[in-house]
Amino acid sequence: MIIDLKNIHIGDLINKHFQQKGIDEFRVCRFLKCSELEWRSILSQQSLDTEILLKLSTLLEYDFFRIYSQHLILYAPQASTHYNKVTNKKSSLPYFRKNIYMKEVIDFILEQIESGNKTKAQIIEEYRIPKTTIYKWVYKYRKSKDDGKGE
Predict the structure, then answer these.
(1) CA-CA distance, 23 to 61, in Å (whole number)?
(2) Per-residue DSSP letters for the chain?
(3) Which helix (H) or strand (E) holds 33?
(4) How is residue 48 annotated by DSSP?
(5) Interior angle at CA 132, CA 126 and CA 136, nearest 5
(6) Using CA atoms, how far apart are residues 64 and 67, in angstroms rounded to an integer?
(7) CA angle 63-57-97, nearest 5°?
(8) How far apart are CA 130 and CA 109, in angstroms?
(9) C-beta of residue 123 within 8 angstroms of C-beta of residue 141
(10) What is the pTM for the complete model shown?
(11) Can you tell me the distance from the alpha carbon of 136 to that of 141, in angstroms, rounded to the nearest whole number?
């Protein structure tokens, strides 16, 4: 399933995952303590309350929050450049040292390179993905494709 990380419609994504899992609608309604009409309303919404999203992530065994994390990685990455930096300020929020890229994001980036839509330099500049990370992806996934061909 290809996810449009630029324009996320979480209700559609939940609905697709819900159908793939084959979970009974009654079970979801009972779990969320909502009516069938409210459940259908959830599926039609572009964004959801985090409490509902957390419950659905638990029930459907899928991290829907990661979709938003991947959006941030691609379109608003934490960069080593000092954008919006407040110096020497401690935060009570946790600091995440590494970005975790979903397979879909890696595939998207590699597709951009392979199709010639973007160069590696453009990807590094636009998405602020480290140069070494891109080269590792290219090597790893090109190697796994080559291994699958049975040389």
Answers:
(1) 11
(2) ----SSS--HHHHHHHHHHHHT--HHHHHHHHT--HHHHHHHHH-SS--HHHHHHHHHHHT--THHHHHHHHHHHS---SS-TT--TT---SSPPP-S----HHHHHHHHHHHHHTSS-HHHHHHHH---HHHHHHHHHHHHHHHHHHT--
(3) none
(4) -
(5) 110
(6) 6
(7) 30
(8) 12
(9) no
(10) 0.58
(11) 8
Token match 């919006």: residue?
84
Evaluate whether 75 touches 5 at the Cβ level (below 8 Å).
yes
Query: Could you report the per-residue pLDDT of 86-120, keeping only the tens digit for each?
Result: 555 677 766 665 557 878 888 888 988 999 999 99
**Spans of all domains in the chain:** 10-73, 103-148
Report phi then psi at 93, rounded to 5.
Answer: -80, 150
From the candidate CATH numbers 3.40.50.880, 2.60.120.10, 3.30.70.260, 1.10.260.40, the one assigned to the domain spanning 10-73: 1.10.260.40
